[in-house]
Design a protein that fits this description.
heterodimer, A: 277 residues, globular, B: 303 residues, alpha/beta, Rossmann fold, Alpha-Beta Plaits, six-stranded mixed beta sheet, 14 strands, 34% helix
């Protein structure tokens, strides 16, 4: 702390409470929950429609489909939620008044993060959870355990991208550039990154970067999320080429969870540093 | 002057090559009402931000009641501050009462004070209405109530009467008077100079980040030697006689406004001018001497 005074948790709670209640009031939580629930239920029931079957066949296959969906949807929603958290206050002119209060910039940032995280966690857990509960009656406890793991990892993925969104918000000069940067982050991490890695691997015939490839996957939270989910399910492991290049020794849930935690903390730390400058 | 509550020593704020605040020294006493005036871009808002600790000074030191605004005791310092920014932005989705409760929670003000403050600024009837339905004047009143949360020892008010109607302005200064009576120090900026000239004890004129003049309004009038304005009404057939009797004073051209004549009289020549007008006294149906206003002081200083 630059000011030589510790963090005041009460101030973080005040900001977090406002952020969360704002998202409840403007029905953001409701809308995001509905989106997650609608997509997860649609995939669960109609995922096998191309094979002429409707209804739940295997939750493992359903989880694999939901992983693909969550990789696109969760980061996008998290980035939309957080990109203007700081720059929006600055642009509206309310930041000066906030900072004239007895709270530090770090407390303001953490308060915003905690409040927005609560909103995102509620939406993700309830939205995907609804599908789990509805499907649960026909499936085993073990498979539902894996579904719980999927929901938890989806929450972590959202929190990582929310952290990135707040970082973008502290670096951006205005809301327009913040939204542009948020889209660029999504585009790069969700669409481009894996293509670049696979392209490099294929073009070099596996010679270039084969040893560092698994570690490079850990530098992308969407890949960490994917690995977390596919390694837990024997039925779907074989469906992903990724499983063949990612060593078992790195596929430990605790290690991957720690990497995800680092993806939450590192952008937040960077955001705090930038905001205090 | 009472013991200084705000002390600014050699404060500078540079943005690249531009000096927004350039070596400002200022001392404002406890319980004083102080006016800060200057053109747009003169550095008033930046100086406010420096005093509030919202932006670090490039050089110099700012203390409030002997404590640094960005030091370890910043929470105690800020709990004693009330700030109303020039461009007030409130949260439209909150009601008036919720707005005060939010800011009050951050400031550590008692929850019960919010309703009382809304009553005081004339917004009790709109306490449960969303801020998005408030008029500009109501928002400004709410912003003022926010600044009063926690009975601050120091109020920093940047263009506080923006958007207020005459009744609102009257209420605002009534509350400000009550605050002064309990010993609150007030630093105020306004572009309506006539509005604050009779209310502040001292002013500082800021120009290009520097303080160009500092002192009581009447003292600055004397220092700048601004002319007095004689305003009189005399029948048109006597106007030539008026010009003749004042000719030896080499005054500028009189300004005729409707049936009145306005003359700018150098302070040193005021007795001679009165003597010259004495023979025409019976013809003059109206006569008024106006001291230079704060606006004249400001414009005179800027010139």
């Amino acid at each position: 702390m630059k000011r030589g005074e510790g963090v005041d948790v009460r101030q973080i709670v005040v900001i977090a409470r406002k952020e969360f209640s704002d998202r409840l009031r403007n029905r953001w939580v409701l809308a995001a929950t509905a989106i997650f629930a609608a997509f997860s239920l649609a995939i669960a029931y109609f995922g096998a429609a191309q094979h002429g079957v409707v209804g739940v066949r295997s939750l493992e296959v359903t989880i694999a489909s939901l992983v693909s969906l969550a990789i696109y949807l969760v980061p996008l929603i998290a980035l939309i939620l957080g990109f203007d958290a700081v720059v929006g206050e600055r642009e509206r002119g309310s930041l000066d008044l906030l900072l004239s209060m007895p709270l530090t910039r770090t407390e303001l940032l953490l308060g915003k993060y905690v409040g927005l995280s609560a909103a995102l966690t509620c939406s993700t857990a309830i939205g995907f959870g609804v599908a789990g509960v509805l499907l649960g009656s026909s499936l085993s406890l073990d498979v539902l355990y894996h579904y719980g793991g999927f929901v938890l990892s989806a929450v972590l993925l959202g929190l990582a991208f929310l952290s990135i969104a707040l970082m973008v918000s502290t670096f951006a000069m205005d809301r327009a550039s913040a939204s542009g940067a948020a889209v660029a982050v999504w585009f790069f991490l969700v669409l481009v990154y894996d293509l670049l890695l696979l392209g490099a691997l294929v073009v070099s015939g596996g010679q270039v970067g084969a040893n560092v490839f698994p570690y490079l996957l850990l530098l992308n939270p969407t890949d960490v999320f994917r690995i977390l989910n596919i390694f837990g399910l024997e039925d779907v492991r074989t469906l992903y080429g990724l499983a063949t290049v990612f060593p078992d020794r790195l596929a430990h849930p605790a290690l991957l969870g720690a990497v995800m935690l680092a993806w939450i903390l590192a952008p937040l730390a960077l955001a705090s540093w930038r905001f205090r400058k | 002057m009472a013991k200084a509550l705000i002390e600014v020593r050699g404060a500078c704020k540079r943005y690249g090559e531009i000096s927004a605040v350039d070596g400002v020294d200022l001392s404002i006493g406890a319980g004083e009402m102080f006016g800060l005036i200057g053109r747009n871009g003169a550095g008033k808002s930046t100086l406010f931000k420096l005093i509030l600790g919202l932006t670090p000074a490039t050089a110099g030191e700012i203390r409030i009641d002997g404590q640094s605004v960005s030091g370890p005791q910043f929470r105690q310092v800020r709990r004693r501050l009330g700030y109303l920014p020039e461009n007030l932005a409130l949260y439209d989705n909150l009601t008036g009462l919720e707005t005060l409760e939010f800011w009050g929670s951050l400031k550590g003000a008692p929850r019960g004070a919010c309703g009382v403050l809304l009553e005081r600024v004339g917004l009790a009837h709109a306490a449960d209405r969303r801020v998005r339905t408030y008029s500009k004047g109501m928002r400004q009143r709410l912003g003022f109530a926010q600044a009063l949360l926690g009975d601050p020892a120091l109020l920093l008010l940047d263009e506080p009467t923006n958007g207020l109607d005459p009744e609102g302005i009257r209420d605002f200064y009534r509350i400000l008077h009550e605050q002064r009576a309990r010993g609150c120090t007030i630093l105020i900026t306004s572009h309506i100079l006539a509005e604050i000239q009779e209310r502040v004890e001292r002013i500082a004129i800021l120009d290009a980040g520097k303080i160009r003049a500092l002192g009581a309004v009447h003292a600055l009038r004397e220092t700048l030697d601004l002319p007095l304005t004689f305003e009189l009404r005399i029948p048109s057939e006597w106007r030539d006689a008026l010009h003749s009797s004042l000719a030896h004073l080499s005054l500028g051209e009189p300004v005729i406004h409707e049936d009145r004549i306005r003359l700018q009289i150098p302070r040193a020549a005021r007795m001679a001018a009165l003597a010259a007008l004495a023979p025409l006294l019976e013809r003059i149906s109206y006569f008024y001497i106006r001291e230079p206003s704060l606006e004249d002081v400001f414009l005179g200083q800027s010139a």
